[in-house]
Each structure stands twice: as structure tokens, then as C-alpha cells.
Amino acid sequence: MSAARPLTTLRNVAVIAALPLLLASCGYGSDAKTDEKKVAAEGKKLSADTVRLGYFPNLTHATALVGDQEGILQKELGGTQLKVSTFNAGPSEIEALNADSIDIGFIGPSPSINGYTKSKGKNLRIIAGSASGGVKLVVNPAKIKTLDDIKGKRIATPQLGNTQDVAFLNWISEKGWKVDAQSGKGDVSVLRTDNKVTPDAYKSGSIDGAWVPEPTASKLVSEGAKVLLDESTLWPDKKFVITNIIVSQKFLTEHPDVVEAVLRGSSKTNEWINANPDKAKASANTKLKELSGKPLGAEVIDAAWPSIQFTDDPLAATLQAQADHAVKAGLLKQPDLNGIYDLRTLNKILKGAGKPEISDAGLGAK
Fold this sequence. Notes:
alpha/beta, 13 helices, 36% helix, 18% strand, disordered N terminus
């Protein structure tokens, strides 16, 4: 597929709304961990004593990793304490938001759509973007040399109906091949495999490749796989949302000053990441080591980092496209996404910094 591919041909990158399993996006499991260490909160306390933030220990969530590691988020919060919980998949983070266990979260487009539509628009708002890109089709070069060679092979995706799974199903259909979306059986065998075990599955030969996010893609490359396709080339301007920032509507209403502080912190973090890519990469890896017990190897993080773009823009038009993709595939009933965005606070911050405001593609809260 070429970079000039029309947006209307990209209609298949969301999740099956009917299955709780399918709220995941780019995750590595489903358990949550809370950082209980006390970080000194200095300065004036805002309207809440604490703000509870959720994110994944994942490079596509590097805004949160770096903002937490460098203290940028806490600095903006002043005397309000930042409490962090980490999640390994979308379902647990959405459940935590619904259960009032977290207030704000970094999360992918699929759970954002599901969380909003399943609650009939009552539980969350997308208030900013965080990252774009970072998804690749990587393959065993001894078995697959061209895109046409994918036919008849065994290709892993992270989870039935997750963002990458549906993107791959869409790509398959546009090749003219047939695959049953539920079973994954057909002209290509689509094997839903947790990203934690995908590298071992590749090493054992049980899969021939994978359509996966970073750093899983680069982990496979470190095992001898080759990148056959970067998903960004399938999107206009090579941009598509991979990570959003969401907030509980209750928290947004009751503590707008805290939400504004978090967004100032995330925006300043993205600015710092883009100005200091090497330092930011090292910072993210330091935080990953703290969270998971080991850092990513240089060969993995150096390959993965350049494919991810860090941006305040939630790329709202691509979220709508992703929802449309799932509807076209028959995996999602037509969702009403009107009101899913509230970018007013973000745009206030951007305007104050002399930066252009960002569009909600007509899906903003009134």
C-alpha cells in the first residue's frame, strides 16, 4: 500500500465492542501495578490532594514514562501529589477509570472508543494526544521476502480485535485474501498472541511474523526478523493516533485545574522529548527498568524509538477513521463519537504558548 492511500480505504483499526477482552491496545497483559513511593510534592496544592495517573510500561507511552521519570508532571502539579499506576492492557485501565481508581490515563484508540461508547458517552473524554505510529509488520526473512508472501503464513497480532489486529485484517482484505475475523483462519493464519510471548513464539518458529507495536517489533528484529511494512505508510501524512490521554468526566468537572496541570506537563514533556531525543530515550528506558526490572537493549530501543512521533495532537480524524474501519469490517456497531473529545484545556495551553490550536474533527464536547 502506498502513502497516498485514501483515508476511506483504511476502515478497520478498532475493536469489537461486545467483548471486554477487546479493550486492549498495544498491551502486554492485564495486571495493574501502583507506584507507592512518595514523591515530594512542592508548591501550592491544587483543588485535589492527589491525581491518580495510569499508563503502560510501553514506548508508545513514553510521554508518561519521561514526564514521570523527569518530574515534569509533578512539577506542574505543585503541591498536588502524583500517584501512578501502570497497566499492561486497555481493559484493566478502563476498568480502573470506571471504578474511580484512576483519574487520568494514557491509552490507545481502541479502548478509548469502547470505553466511551459502552458508557453511552458518560465515563471519559479524550483531552489530548500523546503518540503516533510505532506499529510494524515484521517477518522471518527466510520464509517471507515480499508482501505477497504473507499469504499462507502464520502472523501474530496482540489480541483479537485490538488496534493492530483489525489493521492487519483490513490490510489482508485489501489484498483480496479471505480470513475469518473471529477464528483468524483463512488465506493467512492470524494468531492472537500476547506481546510478552511473541518474541519466544517467533524464536520457536510457531509464527512467521507479527503485526505489532513497539518495542515488540524491534524485539523481533533483534531475533533476526525484518521489517516488511511500517503501518504509518498506510496513513495520510504517515500519522495515526496510537496513544491518547483520557480523563474521567467526573474528575474533569470537579478538578479542571489539576487536569490543566497534567496537560501542561504532558505538553512540556513532548516538547522536551522532541528537543532531546537521545536524553528522552534514555529517560524512558530508565523508567522501564524501574517498572519491569530490566531496560530494553540498545539494539531494541534504538530501532524502535525513531518510528514513534510524540505529539499533543490526538489526530482526531484518524480516531474517527478507526471506528469506521471496525464498522466496515462488521466488528463494531456504528458508534456515536460526538463529544468524545474535550480539547478546550489543551488548546488554552497551546494558545498561551503561542502554538496553533488543535482540531477535534467535529467530535468535541459542546
